[in-house]
Amino acid sequence: MRISSNGMYMQSLQAMLQRQTELARTSEQMSSGVKFSRAGQDPAGATAAQRLDHTLASLTQHESNAGHAQRRLELQEHALTAAGDQLGRARDLVIRANTPTLSDQDRKLIAVEIRQIRGEMIDIANRQDGAGRALFAGTRDGVVPFTDNAGSVGYAGNDGRNEIEVAPGLLVADSDPGSALFMRMPTGDGIVRASAGAANTGSGVLGSAGVVDHAAWNGSGITVEFTAADQYRVLDGAGTEIATGTWEAGQSISAGGVQMKISGAPAAGDSFSLAPSGERDVFATLDAIADALEAPGANPAADARRTNLLNGALGDLSSGQEHLLAARAGTGARLSTLDNAAESRESTALSIESTLSDLRDTDYAEAATRFAQQLTALEAAQQVTVRLQGLSLFNKL
Prior knowledge:
Layout: H1 5-32, H2 43-97, H3 104-125, E1 146-149, E2 152-155, E3 163-167, E4 170-173, H4 178-183, E5 185-186, E6 192-196, E7 205-211, E8 222-228, E9 231-235, E10 241-246, E11 252-255, E12 258-263, E13 271-276, E14 279-280, H5 282-294, H6 300-360, H7 364-389
Antiparallel strand pairs: 1-2, 3-4, 5-14, 6-13, 7-12, 8-9, 8-13, 9-10, 11-12
GO molecular function: structural molecule activity
Region (Disordered): 25-47
InterPro entries: Flagell_FlgL, Flagellin, Flagellin_C, Flagellin_N
């Protein structure tokens, strides 16, 4: 086999150039801090890094979404706290107004404050999130949720909730619709609501009332009807008589699983009813309280009518406060979910960044060792090339 001098020179030159290329790439990795600057240098690593970059970008978007949701939920919590305080103030005023020693003028002054509280509640229900969006309009934008139309409050939002993704597969509602918070408050004790007949002519006052035997109560209404000043009968929801009896002032009447305590002096034909708790908007409740306080107390029957209305309103306000407290608890639970999601995102991001670092970042200890080896290999290639240049038959002459 013949080996030409030119072939030997080209082979040694190619080896030296290859060592120089490897050395230059290692030097670039050490100076830039990354293992590859082009996908062609490490196709598998570049593909994996790109997927992880996309995951990190989605985590960043989730973080932004969570910040938006947290801002609105915190504003909702403040609004619900303020609304609960307003209902607490209204309840205190009703208790004060229900004192027999107050004059009609005193009650009218309290009614003025009740109507002011009603206006404050509308303002709270119309609060915005600072970005031009109403807190309690559901999923509708660009609307004022609550408007006062000649004493009746209307709702222009909807019942929807904006679900925001704050972590992979985790959705959180950023606020609750105003219809659920302010327009559908439970009445009575949340189970039943008792009331006196609007046409009562006696001075009977309905005190405590509620379900005492859930097994015996069929879930329908119960009505106590006085057939005489000291005689009564109890009718079920279908109008069927289920009990009769003789009544004395302050006596509790029990039938069909419910119990009512009535004081005062009911007249024949007066009635007192207990029905399953319904829903009512808080603005109508406050309106009814103000109307009752503004009505003059011309006689014992009018005084009893006002007292019965205020007693019923006290139960409505208490249920309203519980309703808002439950909404605040739900808001707090979602804020807690956001905190947990933030921890999960941070942990995931840290793991991804660590993997990305392994894929892309230069290991300086390994690179320095490799650089030294490649430098030695280059020097050896250079020496081989020099020695090959000295090989010639002329040196033997």
